[in-house]
């Protein structure tokens, strides 16, 4: 391999594939390698036989579950915000032409042992059983403030500088009780724990606005969309994009070893005795374990069912957020369900996931609160994986390492990581000022 590349990308996880697509579109010369013979890395989707082999050690799933190839079970299940950053990236790169999306039916929150629809607007707040009548009025006023808030227009700020006022102080102004704060912070603003309460309120207000705008995109029951045939389609779509712009792909490359010069800067990647030279390397933590540290662990249960999750209005696809405080935990738990309507299971079958940041080594016990909400299950699998984040200084070694995927069932944190890496590699942000209305047609 005598060629020199601007960037070698190792691993075909979703983050790596998005980056390789964006960098190829920018005109950089990209080589993409993976030790696996399939796309998606950790974020792949498995058919039933692959799922069975991975978790049960045999390749003979019971016949009553239907055809193996009708299953596309995500290993990192996540929905996309209809107005969120990932959708903007898809439109910016025109990757939407390789994918078909469908709106997700429902967005729910767990409160005092019950599952409720998440109210996202002042009108929904008035109807929600989550709050009493006086609390509804207070919540409605808060929702109207958020809906009307425009960062560049001080007239909408009501005298508050949200870059300085904390979320706790903003919420106190409206006198909302802890239960209301719980669903606003965790099910609308999608914070993963309660640290946000003592941080500037602007971030929370922007997150709530994103939720409401996403909800309005499809007039559906949730702000989320999800690709037909599962998330395994996404890395492949970005790989196609990269190839269209001249990116080179090599799968099934064992040992991909990153090579450095005396100064510790990356010079290339060696596989099967050949070295490809490059200026920069992008990879997931598994390719450079000595430049990453373990920061946590995700516990997940995967269930195959013959019915929707109870108390979610028979939704075929749904997210339920269980805020940490409701469970006496340090972090939230997430319930994710999709079904044959998204082409991820045979007709009549549903795939549900319960995931959380692990606080013990016993996922079966730790995830019980979420599993109990599923009703009867046909099959249940448990999985845990460690989460890593980079500890290197990219300006010194030219290695750009992604963070492991977290337990959340939406893509906002994933895409933030990708865009931060892109800015570090290229020295500029991705321009995502796209007209979303023009793209809506592509997603109907």
TrEMBL record:
The lineage of its organism: Eukaryota, Viridiplantae, Streptophyta, Embryophyta, Tracheophyta. Keywords: GTPase activation. Belongs to the Rab GDI family. One of its GO terms (biological process) is protein transport. Pfam families: GDI (PF00996). Regulates the GDP/GTP exchange reaction of most RAB proteins by inhibiting the dissociation of GDP from them, and the subsequent binding of GTP. This is Guanosine nucleotide diphosphate dissociation inhibitor. One of its GO terms (cellular component) is apoplast. GO terms for molecular function: GTPase activator activity; Rab GDP-dissociation inhibitor activity. InterPro entries: FAD/NAD-bd_sf, GDP_dissociation_inhibitor, RabGDI.
């Amino acid at each position: 391999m005598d060629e020199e590349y601007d960037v070698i990308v190792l691993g075909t996880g979703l983050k790596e594939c998005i980056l390789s697509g964006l960098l190829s579109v920018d005109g950089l010369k990209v080589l993409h390698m993976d030790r696996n013979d399939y796309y998606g890395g950790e974020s792949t989707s498995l058919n039933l036989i692959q799922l069975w082999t991975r978790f049960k050690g045999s390749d003979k799933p019971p016949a009553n579950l239907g055809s193996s190839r009708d299953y596309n079970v995500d290993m990192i299940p996540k929905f996309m915000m209809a107005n969120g950053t990932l959708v903007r990236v898809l439109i910016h790169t025109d990757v939407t032409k390789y994918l078909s999306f469908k709106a997700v039916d429902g967005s729910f929150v767990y409160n005092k042992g019950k599952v409720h629809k998440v109210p996202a607007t002042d009108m929904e707040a008035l109807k929600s059983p989550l709050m009493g009548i006086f609390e509804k009025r207070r919540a409605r006023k808060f929702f109207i403030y958020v809906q009307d808030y425009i960062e560049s227009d001080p007239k909408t700020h009501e005298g508050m500088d949200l870059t300085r006022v904390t979320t706790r102080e903003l919420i106190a102004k409206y006198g909302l009780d802890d239960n209301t704060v719980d669903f606003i912070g965790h099910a609308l603003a999608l914070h993963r724990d309660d640290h946000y309460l003592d941080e500037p309120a602007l971030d929370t207000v922007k997150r709530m606005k994103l939720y409401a705008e996403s909800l309005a995109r499809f007039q559906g029951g949730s702000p989320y969309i999800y690709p037909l045939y599962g998330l395994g389609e996404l890395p492949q779509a970005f790989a196609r994009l990269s190839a269209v712009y001249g990116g080179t792909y090599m799968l099934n490359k064992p040992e991909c070893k990153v090579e450095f010069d005396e100064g510790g800067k990356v010079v290339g990647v060696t596989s099967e005795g050949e070295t490809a030279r490059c200026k920069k390397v992008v990879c997931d933590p598994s390719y450079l374990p000595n430049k990453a540290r373990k920061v946590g662990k995700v516990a997940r249960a995967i269930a195959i069912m013959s019915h929707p999750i109870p108390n979610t209005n028979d939704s075929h696809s749904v997210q339920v957020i269980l805020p940490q405080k409701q469970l006496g935990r340090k972090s939230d738990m997430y319930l994710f369900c999709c079904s044959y309507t998204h082409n991820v299971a045979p007709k009549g079958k549903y795939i549900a996931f319960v995931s959380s940041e692990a606080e013990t080594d016993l996922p079966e016990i730790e995830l019980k609160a979420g599993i109990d909400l599923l009703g009867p299950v046909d099959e249940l699998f448990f999985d845990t994986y460690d989460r890593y984040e980079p500890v290197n200084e990219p300006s010194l070694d030219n290695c750009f390492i992604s963070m492991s995927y977290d337990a959340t069932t939406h893509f906002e944190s994933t895409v933030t990581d990708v865009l931060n890496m892109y800015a570090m590699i290229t020295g500029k942000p991705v321009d995502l000022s796209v007209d979303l209305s023009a793209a809506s047609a592509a997603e109907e």
